[in-house]
Amino acid sequence: MKTIGIIGGMGPLATADLFNKIVSLTEAGGDNDHIHIIIDNNTEIPDRTDYIMNDGANPEKHLIKSALKLEIMGADVLVMPCNTAHFFYNRIIQYINIPFINMIEETAK
Predict the structure, then answer these.
(1) C-alpha dihedral, 59 to 68 to 40 to 89, nearest 10°
(2) Terminal-to-terminal C-alpha distance of the chain
(3) At 15, phi and psi to the nearest 5?
(4) Can you tell me the distance from the alpha carbon of 52 to that of 2, in angstroms, rounded to the nearest whole number?
(5) How would you list the strands of the sheet with 3-8, edge to edge?
(6) Tens digit of each residue's pLDDT (9 = 90 or more) over 29-59
(7) How do residues 63-83 score in pLDDT, each as one tens digit?
């Protein structure tokens, strides 16, 4: 079974909500039937909106670090529940070798 890596912490409740949805919607007869999920709940990532709108601290290196950390830990695919952080999606994918599901594109489909 594949391992999902969640780039989280940008709204810890959004991260918890995504985790809960994955677990709740997985058809599993027992604990061992669930999907392996690794979460990097990094609440120190600078505010994305502040960077985009007001020239605040750039969160890009923190997002890339989380993605790389999750890949090294064994994630086969990445997801990120923060809408605004997808502004950095194209930069993040340049540094990783695993698929990264783009929530914005998937929602548009």
Answers:
(1) 50
(2) 25
(3) -65, -45
(4) 34
(5) 36-41, 3-8, 77-79
(6) 999 999 999 999 999 999 999 999 999 999 9
(7) 999 999 999 999 999 999 999
**For residues 29, 32, 38 and 43, what is the CA-based torsion angle, rounded to 10 degrees?**
60
- E runs forming strands in 1-109: 3-8, 36-41, 77-79
Confidence of residue 1 (pLDDT cuts 50, 70, 90): confident
Sequence-distant (6+) residues with CB within 8 A of 101 are 77, 78, 79
Q: Is the pTM of this model over 0.90?
A: yes
